[in-house]
């Protein structure tokens, strides 16, 4: 019967052997939304590294664990649960085409993961163990980038020596990694930002930041072991979530946080990770993770006369140590962290108990502002929570309930639903007390940190006809206490709808409309507190991507934005983007060229664009005012370009990227130490990867 099923599936006239480029578009949208929400540069490239390893060594579906499929970041929890139900019921898969028979799995899902999976079963345990140590891949990465115009911070004759950059203008990244199928890996990262010294002054040991990791999985009862730098991800992010995570986007069903508790850390970001040791043990249906971390972090200190000790007014998570003041604040605080996760799971449900404790060398006392009334204080903090999930037929329920040191409460509960063969939906409700506080937390919330929020989100994805998909969500939320630049209780609501059409693997088109409406302070009034008014932002985007042939592809995007269009001082934004990629049949080299024009009424109507960059790097920029931007990216496989043996042990790849933004009529660009006395800003970036 199963063989007959496979034969029938093979007759489906759908080409599953080409991965759609839609996921890249979704990833760009999520990154753009995160940058708009936080104004923080994304430096966590661990997901890109994991996918690159799965691309070289695909996941063997007949041996895959739940953590393997979760690590892809491309499947919902309902799809993962249904996969293991199918495998338990019908046994090992014969072909990847069999995936079409799994409930809630559709052709788009299979296309997304097809490059990262395989179906075979011919390796012994001994072979796998030996290969961990000998058959893994090494790669050595070197990246350098520089802005060609000279920012004000590099002017040694500046009025204030506190804002003078002490180092050189280059940004440098070094990384060595050994990896075998994400089962065994170790490596080192060195990172220097523009303006930081290198092998002199404050950085006499070279790079400003070093990170070392050693990570191994599936050794007897040890499910995971981490030494050095690692991340901890618990529940739905109410008490701890350190890996990269997104919230609302066109991927309307991506509302559940999914990750193994313990993960290696090998990115250049200098704040959101632990340093020490962690281990996950398992027996039968039980799984336990414990960890301890002791590291130095940077913070701004103020004199606390009551305690006769400098108190932490804020943490420095920028990673910049360019000036004298920034270097004096570097690693000036000790942070001890320890925690645990105990997890019991069955085929259709799981229950987890989580706890985390922090101790700081100096007490925390934030600036005396009304929005800081409930902020963390003192030398220690702790959180605990219970998280759960339960799958019943085509419904997957999940959630987390948490408390902090002062027993303030936070709740997140949601459900993923497969309502019909072509209809999926998601609902998530969060209720987080205004007094609730946590460190390194990142839940599915409107706020950048989970506190002071109630909200209800509902999303739906419908595939009415072949090649068509409609995604929509609605989110309504309120904040019972003050926030930064919101001097009173406030509320908001978001609406999003997207129409996507992809008749075949050669091209797609989508258009979406997004409306955000929330309260914010009215500026320009000289009062102790500000009056609140509704700020409305509407965004309409259309994008077309076409593969003209196997060598040339085009992408065109138009963005329009309206900010407070019915208010006294409205703003408008417009951006047009065109990208052309060329890669010859032998794929020895590739070329990508992009050109864009933007014009906005001000900062509130700024528009975000995620541009093609070198491997493992992000270029995500906010554009406002009026100007043009273009970029050129070249990449080449040096061995094959110069006719060296393609099958040699060492393979060298090179990327070269040039980008420039031009502001006609301007004589100054940027602000503060990054201000440039020019109408243009240019950047040159080069990256080399030696693999063996």
Strand content: over 45%
Form type:
globular
Mean pLDDT, to the nearest integer, reads 87
Give the domain tally: 2
Structural class, by secondary structure, is mainly beta
Portion of residues within helices: 10-25%
* Rg for CA atoms: 25 Å
Uncertain runs are: 1-20
Note the main sheet: 24 strands, antiparallel, barrel
Number of strands: 31
In DSSP terms (H or I, runs of 4 or more residues), the helix count works out at 9
How many angstroms does the end-to-end distance come to?
A: 45 Å
Features:
692 residues; 31 strands; mainly beta; single chain
Brief overview, please?
The protein has 692 residues and is mainly beta. The protein has nine helices and 31 strands.
Q: Can you characterise this structure?
A:
It is a single chain. The longest helix has 17 residues, at 22-38. The protein has a 24-stranded antiparallel barrel. Strands 1-2 form a two-stranded parallel ribbon. The protein has a two-stranded antiparallel sheet with strand order 11-12. It contains 9 helices and 31 strands. It is mostly beta strands and 692 residues long. Residues 1-20 have low confidence and may be disordered. It has 2 domains: 2-547, no CATH class; 548-692, no CATH class.
